[in-house]
Write a structure and sequence with these properties.
The protein is α+β, with helices and mostly antiparallel strands and 91 residues long. Strands 2-1-3-4-5 form a 5-stranded antiparallel sheet. The chain binds zinc ion (ZN) (3 copies). One zinc ion binds next to helix 2 and strand 2.
Amino acid sequence: MLKQTQLCTHLSVLTDVRSAQEYVCEECIKAGDSWVHLRTCQTCGTTLCCDSSPNKHATRHYHTSQHPVVASAEPGERWLWCYADEQMAGY
Ligand SMILES: [Zn+2]
Ligand SMILES: [Zn+2]
Ligand SMILES: [Zn+2]
């Protein structure tokens, strides 16, 4: 199902891709902040903002939770990113 699984064990064990439940950053919305793009954590399903956003919640989530893989939550984008191995995969 995944097009690229080399070097990354996290992406290769992923059997299904979680999509965003709501199109908001769950942390920014609480604080009343804005964001640029959204990523959905593939471990817990939380949707958070990308590195172009002021709060970089998706990256922060990786460092605090050690959940390595996110999927783009942007409409039409079908890719995954592993923070641990810095690997991208399409699906
Ligand atoms: Zn990985
Ligand atoms: Zn955010
Ligand atoms: Zn998570």
